[in-house]
Amino acid sequence: MVRQVLLVVLLSFSSLASAAIDTYQFKDDATRERFQSLSTELRCPKCQNQNIADSNSPIAKDLRDELYRMLENGADDEQVIDFMVTRYGEFVLYRPRMSEQTYLLWYGPAALLLIGVIVVLLISGKRKKTEPGKPDGNLSDAEKQRLDQILKQEQNK
Amino acid sequence: MRRLIVILPLVLFVALGLFLWNGIGKDTKTLPSPLIGKTVPEFSLSALLDEQKTITAADLKGRPALLNVWATWCPTCKQEHAQLNRMARDEGVTIYGVNYKDDRAKAKIWLDKYMNPYALNIYDPDGHLGLNLGVYGAPETFLLDAQGIIRYKHVGAIDQRVWGELRQKMKQLEVN
Question: In CATH, what is the architecture of B34-175?
């Protein structure tokens, strides 16, 4: 009984959770797939944390229509991206393009990782040489004398 | 030298922290327009008040002006309308309107009711001009120079404060 009630409750919410639904007729499956992948990679300018496939805002609908129209007219991905970027800026791309402005974004994490690795290697290298408590086999004369003293004391006990 | 390298991550971390801290509280909703410095995209649409009359981008040239994207379904447009009226009436500002994804009859009634501050009104029912202008939420206002080049864009209502900024930018355009 509880299960059935739960099922009904969950089902009643499922319609709320679904994304924007349009009925586009595509000329072939390849175009449909390109539409789906492009619409999930383009960001809605109004509702900024959604892509245009998920958003219900009117502007996202307009952009989907435009995307559909362009793909049906045979535009390639590059043309679609250019179209969106010249109107709404780099912002609409979830994967920003490589440019002077985005070098830091693309290479920054790798550079930070590299710096971290170098620092770790340097520190651990230094440690190995001077690790305290480990004899390196080279005692000074004073140390040797002191060691002999200590050993003699131990024997005399 | 070694010591310097050891504290390098800390220095980088602090630098990154300051960089991110700097971003906190900044307006993230307003997108910079890639159209700034470019001419108004070509279009050929009918005038809102006169279906027979065609307006093109060339009609927007001649003097610095504001291009205001509005619609009757947009509550913020109503909010800024009185300000636009004051600007047009008291200061003689040239304001062109883009009636964006709207209904012609409704828009006409609206202008009759609340006064018409627009020197020209472009009727863009499909939102194509709006799309080409990168409009993502009405009202949006573009500042055009005499050659019809977009110099600045403001997203959201124009109030006294925003107009103060726009007026300064407009004056600079008139001097040049």
Answer: 3-Layer(aba) Sandwich (3.40)
